[in-house]
TrEMBL record, chain A:
GO terms for molecular function: protein heterodimerization activity. The keyword Acetylation does not apply. This is Transcription initiation factor TFIID subunit 13. Component of the TFIID basal transcription factor complex, composed of TATA-box-binding protein TBP, and a number of TBP-associated factors (TAFs), including TAF1, TAF2, TAF3, TAF4, TAF5, TAF6, TAF7, TAF8, TAF9, TAF10, TAF11, TAF12 and TAF13. Interacts with TBP, and more strongly with TAF10 and TAF11. InterPro entries: Histone-fold, TFIID_TAF13. GO terms for biological process: transcription by RNA polymerase II. Keywords: Nucleus, Transcription, Transcription regulation. GO terms for cellular component: transcription factor TFIID complex. It is found in: Nucleus. Residues 1-16 have a biased composition (Acidic residues). Belongs to the TAF13 family. The lineage of its organism: Eukaryota, Metazoa, Chordata, Craniata, Vertebrata.
Automatic annotation (TrEMBL), chain B:
GO terms for molecular function: protein heterodimerization activity; RNA polymerase II general transcription initiation factor activity. It comes from the Eukaryota. This is TAFII28-like protein domain-containing protein. It comes from Calidris pygmaea. It is found in: Nucleus. One of its GO terms (biological process) is RNA polymerase II preinitiation complex assembly. One of its GO terms (cellular component) is transcription factor TFIID complex. Belongs to the TAF11 family. Residues 95-180 form the TAFII28-like protein domain. Keywords: Nucleus, Transcription, Transcription regulation. InterPro entries: Histone-fold, TAF11-like, TAFII28_dom.
């Protein structure tokens, strides 16, 4: 069944991190419970999503970040994670690529604006 | 169908039919455009910019269209045309958001404002690399993680609807969504070696 295919990778995740407990990461504290709930509501779920679904999503996110980090460490400058590596890994996915470009551009704009604001204050 | 679940997704999809992103849009809902539309970076700028809540989100985008980067997959445009298109987009978003019901406004606010905590993401990445990472890396990683969550949740909502059930989403929907995304190659997995020719 399709379900069994999915159960195996999740249990493996638990073994890697939690030490053999079934049903996801047993021992690790939940890092993103509150934020994930808000996110799920924003993306279309119910206002009170099920805790089990939130847990599954958290495991998925942590696995995603771990995979991306490992991949980024293996390309470009080895052993370090740099923005260029992330952008390179994401290049095939149009949504994520556009999003990263937007975020980084916005960040630059804000830094410039803050700097100009501080200089204006200092001058007057 | 459940009203809040469907209304939230439909409304966000409506305005984006007009400028369709060329390369994306896997699902007919215009779900792809949802991620690209809000240009203001929630993760990077929410705390600092101090925007007004709720419906003010759309107006916080920069009025100067020149600095907006081109979207991935869009055909090449001259700067003036890009500016005009961005202004049109901003205007349409404003009209849309101003016509939201209270429930839709809530959901839209959550959609824009929710973000992963930078400290936790930084800690997680540093625990994997063993070295320190720059702020930009944390910003980028938080951003694409949120997009990733959006993809999974939207796929799960499709599954839920297809099976004739209602939100809230159950683990079986999530698992089926992950299975589908995996078969499309949208979930990175470097654990199993792919055998191309048997």
């Amino acid at each position: 069944m399709a379900d069994e295919e999915e159960d195996v990778p999740f249990e493996e995740d638990a073994e890697e991190a939690g030490g053999g407990l079934d049903g996801g990461q047993g021992k690790r504290k939940r890092l993103f419970s509150k934020e994930l709930r808000c996110m799920m509501y924003g993306f279309g779920d119910d206002q009170n999503p099920y805790t089990e679904s939130v847990d599954i999503l958290e495991d998925l996110v942590i696995e995603f970040i771990t995979e991306m980090t490992h991949k980024a460490m293996s390309i470009g400058r080895q052993g370090r994670v740099q923005v260029e590596d992330i952008v390179f890994l994401i290049r095939k996915d149009p949504r994520k690529f556009a999003r990263v470009k937007d975020l980084l551009t916005m960040n630059e704009e804000l830094k410039r604006a803050r700097k100009a604001f501080d200089e204006a204050n200092y001058g007057s | 169908m459940a009203d809040p679940g469907e209304a939230g997704r439909e409304e966000l999809g409506v305005a984006h039919r007009d400028p369709p992103p060329a390369a994306s849009s896997p699902s007919g809902d215009g779900a792809a455009a949802e991620e690209e539309e809000p240009a203001a970076a929630e993760g990077a700028s929410e705390g600092e910019a101090g925007e007004a809540g709720g419906g003010g989100e759309a107006k916080a985008e920069p009025p100067d269209g020149e600095v907006r980067p081109g979207r991935g997959g869009r055909p090449y445009r001259t700067k003036e045309k890009k500016q005009k298109v961005d202004e049109d987009e901003i205007q349409k978003m404003q009209i849309l958001v101003s016509s939201f019901s209270e429930e839709q406004l809530n959901r839209y606010e959550m959609y824009r404002r929710s973000a992963f905590p930078k400290a936790a993401i930084k800690r997680l990445i540093q625990s994997i690399t063993g070295t320190s990472v720059s702020q930009n890396v944390v910003i980028a990683m938080s951003g694409i993680s949120k997009v990733f969550v959006g993809e999974v949740v939207e796929e799960a909502l499709d599954v839920c609807e297809k099976w004739g059930e209602l939100p809230p989403l159950q683990p079986k929907h999530m698992r089926e969504a992950v299975r589908r995304l995996k078969s499309r190659g949208q979930i990175p997995n470097s654990k199993y070696k792919k055998i191309i020719f048997h």
